[in-house]
Design brief:
325 residues; alpha/beta; Spore Coat Polysaccharide Biosynthesis Protein SpsA, Chain A; eight-stranded mixed β-sheet; four-stranded mixed β-sheet; 12 strands
Length: 325
């Protein structure tokens, strides 16, 4: 049984896939299996996957019809045999010693989850920036959920190594969910983790930001539905848990930031309703305005709650000025 299973969902990313796979097969930690899930790609991704699989017996290929990112990850998990799981998007790539450092930390501290720094690499500008610096080194599950909800850590499933045994608690995947699937999956994995450790190191992952990615491609009704849905999925998962009552502020922050995303993408359908919802949450939890990602939208919520026209004019002006992102 391998120590670590690396699950890589792939959908039409042939242009970037080789760099991803090169970074994985060259890991300094050899005891890995590499599960590549071809989610119905129509470009040259299947040919690239087959070529790498012919050269490296650690690569397991799963070909399936397109069902979206969440179910691609699910297929990989079901095939995985490793003690630990790492989710890697097929257009990103790892530092060559990433898995070695993460596995060592996990074993030393018997951690259910090991979180690590990464870099955001912008293809067009060539700019690179380091991820959020997480202050503490150890968290309980609710402490880390709070840190993520309040933008002191990251939701990305690619930002941590975790035990495969966590999935035995009944972790679920929402079919077709692309935008926000990280939030729903990470919420569940964090909740079922007893010990979460933070590895203080160089950035171990290069997260590539490109216009054609799921998060940055043309906005549409499907993505808007995903964004409206994922806070509800998180809420539904937690509502029968004993900690639910003490996590209302965190759930409010998640809902506000989902609404922020819709407005920043110029999705003005139901914008007044969403702004009133966010405005009401901020009245109940005014200290959420200290979170920079929420503070930037506070005036917008207030204007939209009073007048849809004023709110929309303000939003368009400030998005153009890049004061709202």
């Amino acid at each position: 049984m391998p120590a670590v299973s690396i699950v890589i969902p792939v959908y039409n990313i042939g242009k970037y896939l080789e760099k991803c796979l090169d970074s994985v097969v060259a890991q300094t930690f050899p005891d890995i299996e590499i599960i590549v899930v071809n989610d119905g790609s129509t470009d040259n991704s299947p040919e690239i996957i087959a070529r790498y699989a012919d050269k490296d017996s650690r690569i397991v290929v799963i070909d399936k019809s397109n069902e979206g990112l969440a179910y691609a990850r699910k297929s990989g998990i079901e095939a995985a045999r490793g003690t630990y799981i790492y989710h890697l998007d097929g257009d990103d790539y790892l530092e060559f010693d990433a898995i070695e450092l993460l596995y060592r930390k996990a074993k030393e501290e018997d951690a259910d989850m090991v979180v690590f720094p990464f870099s955001l690499d912008y293809i067009e500008s060539g700019k690179s920036e380091r991820s959020i610096e997480i202050a503490d080194e150890h968290f309980t599950n609710t402490e880390f959920f709070s840190a993520i909800a309040f933008s002191k850590a990251h939701w990305g499933v690619w930002s941590y190594l975790h035990k495969r045994s966590l999935y035995a608690n009944g972790v679920t995947f929402h079919k077709g969910l692309n935008y926000g699937e990280d939030v729903f999956l990470t919420t569940q994995l964090v909740y079922f983790s007893s010990r979460i450790s933070v590895l203080k190191s160089k950035p171990l992952l290069h997260y590539i930001i490109r216009e054609s990615s799921i998060t940055n491609s043309r906005f549409n009704e499907k993505k808007a539905r995903d964004i409206l849905l994922y806070p509800s999925l998180v809420n539904d998962f937690l509502k029968d848990k004993p900690e639910y009552g003490s996590l209302q502020k965190e759930l409010g922050a998640i809902r506000i930031q989902a609404n922020n995303t819709l407005l920043s993408k110029r999705w003005f359908k139901d914008a007044r309703t969403l702004s009133r919802e966010s405005h009401a949450i901020l009245k109940q939890y005014p200290d959420l305005k200290r979170i920079p990602q929420i503070k930037a939208f506070h005036k917008l919520f207030t204007l939209y709650a009073r007048s849809g026209l004023l709110g929309r004019l303000y939003a368009q002006y400030y998005i153009c000025k890049k004061k709202i992102k």
